[in-house]
């Protein structure tokens, strides 16, 4: 039996800690083969970056890789010595010595394949093999040293586990595992015993510090059982599980493609509540009434609003449309009590045309701003108009006319070179030890700014234009929302498009779009920096009705107004005012019963 163990920087931060880790390895090494992957000691990598900055503010990436890769080389040698000192046969190997072959991209190389012969030879001899994480070697004739990007030793470990077909990969860190939320904000945060790879990816803002998303992606694609656990205790930690994998070939190990799949769902019907009051409790009332009827809601979108009204658009299964429309009609009077009629008549509108949901899925889109833009460009080139857009960390979903569905998936699968899956009837086939709870964890992101472009023409190519412009400037867009409301401007229809970016990029984004708006005759561009995003994630919500309602109710009870809503199948995100962020997170964490009695100890 073979196990890959990875020890992060703090776990090997001093000679004492290296010795303690060696003890731990020695215990396991008696009855199984072990490959150990280590990070640089403590904050070594940061210190090396600082050194380089003292010489030049833009050192070339090749020399940065030469420099940063030394950190891990110190740790492997010391770890191997510590093991030998305990009488455990061990040998250290650099990425190049192993043959961790990567792209030639310095400072952010992806792993192409791993030569396993040398490691296997040493394992045969009964040695523990200690491998430098975070580094590889390019295929070019020059065999350059490359690094995988900050935090990349998780990726090294999981890739090695895949290549060696290890039993499992254990990620040792300074926290006891993955917690239900950020314990600095919610001290009652609890340790999860299990989480799926998809959930982990959607919780990027919470989980990425503990486990690198690229590592999660490999674990998911190859079905590597992954465990995150503390190197200070014997507690079992958190299992990160995946669906039964297709076991892809081991070359091009890290997907160089940003997208894994295209999904579509034709069993969708759209409905919206237009011009409802913009105040706490409206979404809660609507979705709790729907939940009472046990109707599953799929996509939910609430975009920016004007004159104190909101549009909330959502989709349900086709056969539930009539019933859901009746529920919406019935509660409308209650929602608009004391309503100012000058704001326009609120109404429930069901989408007459048949619609379909088309989604792009893949962890590779994290940090690649071009993906959404390319999707919109592809659809525009095919002449397809998007009725709604909703995004999450690893998914972009568009609602289109059902008659455009086939054209949409064909052009997307060509453009992205991936397979297409019909998810209209599917359910997750996970190898779970437990029934997945509807909500696994909640996350808060206060480092966001919201932008909106008002009154852009309602025709193919506009979203492509907007997000193409931003992608050109390398601006990553987080949550994109295009909702229902149409205005008639000089006889032609327009819509508003809203999205979030990271706060520091807000101003630059505003400038780009303000220029574009002037040039193309779009409406006003609005920037709002004081916002926060709260999200709940759980794969069990697919088969539970009322999760959105519960989240919105928790916000309503705290008198928190929801500014925007976007969802994917396993995630619901709400944008609220920044000053409400912490309270929102605490309320939602509590509402889903995620709080425990004990306090999980985490180092500062
Ligand atoms: N030492 C590298 C870093 O600090 C890689 C890692 O620790 O994962 O980013
Ligand atoms: Mg790390």
Query: Could you say which structural class the secondary elements and strand pairing correspond to?
Result: alpha/beta
Major sheet: 14 strands, mixed
Q: Which geometry do the CA atoms define?
A: globular
Measured between the Cα atoms of the first and last residue, the distance is: 36 Å
Instruction: Provide the helix percentage.
Output: 25-40%
Number of DSSP E strands: 26
| Total number of helices | 17
Global mean pLDDT: 89
Ligand names? aspartic acid, magnesium ion
| Poorly predicted parts | 427-432
The rounded Rg comes to 25 Å
Strand content: 25-35%
Describe the structure.
This protein is of the alpha/beta class and 604 residues long. 32% of the residues lie in helices and 29% in strands. It is built from 17 helices and 26 strands. Strands 13, 14, 15, 16, 17, 18, 19, 20, 21, 22, 23, 24, 25 and 26 form a 14-stranded mixed sheet that branches. Strands 3-6-2-1-9-11-12-10 form an eight-stranded mixed sheet, sandwiched between helices. It has a four-stranded mixed sheet with strand order 5-4-7-8. A hairpin with a 7-residue loop joins strand 11 (226-230) and strand 12. The two termini are 36 Å apart. The structure holds aspartic acid (ASP) and magnesium ion. Residues 8, 151, 154 line the site of magnesium ion.
